[in-house]
Amino acid sequence: MNHPTSIAIEFENQNLQILDQQLLPHKETWLKIETVKDMILAIKALKVRGAPLIGVAAACALAQSALKGTSQTALLSEADELAEARPTAVNLMICVERMRKAILDRLNPQELYKVAIEIFIEDINLCEKISNNGNPFIKDGDNILTHCNAGALATAGIGTALGVIKRAHESGKKIHVYVDETRPLLQGGRLTAWEMEKAKIPYTLISDNMAGHLMSLGKINKAITGADRIAVNGDFANKIGTYSVAVLCKHHNIPFYVAAPYTTVDPQTPNGKLIPIEQRHESEVKGYGEAQWAPSKANVYNPSFDVTPAELVSAWILDKKAYTKSDIEKGVFKC
Amino acid sequence: MNHPTSIAIEFENQNLQILDQQLLPHKETWLKIETVKDMILAIKALKVRGAPLIGVAAACALAQSALKGTSQTALLSEADELAEARPTAVNLMICVERMRKAILDRLNPQELYKVAIEIFIEDINLCEKISNNGNPFIKDGDNILTHCNAGALATAGIGTALGVIKRAHESGKKIHVYVDETRPLLQGGRLTAWEMEKAKIPYTLISDNMAGHLMSLGKINKAITGADRIAVNGDFANKIGTYSVAVLCKHHNIPFYVAAPYTTVDPQTPNGKLIPIEQRHESEVKGYGEAQWAPSKANVYNPSFDVTPAELVSAWILDKKAYTKSDIEKGVFKC
């Protein structure tokens, strides 16, 4: 079996490691995962994050556990715990469900390992297809806003939104990327900026509240983000602040694209209002890590995601194709 | 002469001190100002900030210098340097201009001191009037968004936008304030949160990118900010991110108010496009203080202000009265 590689996760036999994304961009440290519990903690602490990547990571953790001799009953219970590690991204549930079915089918550890590697390789291929499908939307000279990180650090492959951007850059198009820092956990300022440097793509880091001003000056002409869950009607959840970007795009007549693999589509969720939104700890809004700048008693609201309605989306760039509003209305996300 | 008091600045004879706003909310430290140069450094470093307050602070610094025996020529040159300390807020230029005229009129140091104290007291009174004029716009049960800090820390008095909020609270209206943290320098998360706690007004601190989501959930029904410069046509500059708040309000049919004293109106600026926007240091966007989280070589854009066009404003709450769009069109800001 060919062992897939990724800049964010490594899995070969029992050796499972993730790049600790909390320490980026200043430290590139790999974290050894020994148990499913380790992986759950890493997912909750956003050491491994990004909707597609946590799906792959969860599948790998279950396969590792099987290789280590965990019983079928215990594996099923570990699958339940993994599926609940983060509530918004549906890829996690979908990948865990695939592993659960394989466990219920009494596949042996080597076969379960093979399923996880299939999921890993599939995610790499999905990213390639998304990047190719998105490339025609990017033109020479574009100034593209992105929010959070939907890159190689959010997937097992080249990325979704950043995959589209990288493919456009590889195609020789001269583009410039505006990177929202993405408070509170700064996935833009830390991770997307790091990926743009690695890919040598010209970029400018901004605070989230600067995007509107740049649009008003005509300095941004396109926006693209990833997604954590896409509902049947095209509404989607993504990192908090995505909705504001989409509203600002509408106000300035700027196209707004979402890029994601089919594993992000949830046929069980008819519309965005039904997507559960994870609430996170208040310390994330009161500061960043040890730098806590707000009054210690401050009351805080910290939703990790928001929902962007389909009406604000110009195209849904998936692995199969880039869908239009009329495709969505015809029900392409129903199954 | 009665000596006015403020929570942000103290001036009595040669004793001039400012509350160091960079150290808030964790430390309440008063910083002694000995020279005009000290004040310029404090203004540039945002140790003293807020459009009305830096106008008052500049006037006090010039009066202190006069009391210390500085010559007329040297005072005029100090006035020039002060006026250039920050380019966007017009109150600074207007207050320095008043002092310059008094210096040119060869007023003696005690008389110059009196002019500065007049400016100080006037700002306190302007805040009272703004707060009273704004109170009718706030209703029992309102959930009000504010951005940056336009409170007692931005003026010599009760504040402008926060003055309105405090007056509504004092009037017994049950209100809740959503405080944008206001990256990159976090005047919301540090200063407005601190003021809300002092005033015992219920508030919730959020990242700037959460306001849109809250509006979509119907949890915010009003927004109010201060201003750094208001153009004749009603466009105004304020802390970066204000424009995005105004666009989000428009999208959600939420009224957006701006509150400021007449010293913020610039009859020399016909429209917002002509307001100079201060660009600040890249380190502010790459992190906060010593916590630097972005790649060290990241290219950064850091405008300190943005411009909100008049069409997005529901009312301009000034000391004289609250103006409507039709008042503005009639030319009330022309002189």
Total number of strands of chain A: 15
What's the overall geometry of chain A? Answer: globular
Q: Calculate Rg of chain A over CA atoms.
A: 19 Å
What is the distance, rounded to the nearest whole angstrom, between the alpha carbons of the first and last residues of chain A?
31 Å
Chain pair forming the biggest interface: A-B, 54 and 54 residues
| Oligomer description | homodimer
Mean pLDDT of chain A: 97
How would you describe what is shown here?
Chain A has 335 residues and is of the alpha/beta class. Chain A is globular and about 60 Å long. In chain A, a hairpin with a 5-residue loop joins strand 8 and strand 9. At the A-B interface, helix 7, strand 6, helix 8 and helix 9 of A face helix 7, strand 6, helix 8 and helix 9 of B.
Task: Give structural attributes.
three-stranded antiparallel beta sheet, alpha/beta, globular, homodimer, 335 residues
In summary, what is this structure?
Two copies of one chain form a homodimer. Chain A has 335 residues and is α/β, with parallel strands linked by helices. Helix content of chain A is 38%, strand content 16%.
Layout of strands and helices, then pairs:
The structure is a homodimer of 335-residue chains.
Chain A: E1 9-12, E2 15-19, E3 30-33, H1 36-44, H2 51-67, H3 72-83, H4 90-104, H5 109-134, E4 143-146, H6 161-170, E5 176-180, H7 187-198, E6 203-206, H8 211-216, E7 222-225, E8 229-230, E9 236-239, H9 242-251, E10 256-259, H10 283-286, E11 287-288, E12 291-292, E13 305-308, E14 315-317, E15 322-323, H11 325-329
Parallel strand pairs in A: 4-5, 4-7, 5-6, 7-10, 10-14
Antiparallel strand pairs in A: 1-2, 2-3, 8-9, 9-13, 11-12, 14-15
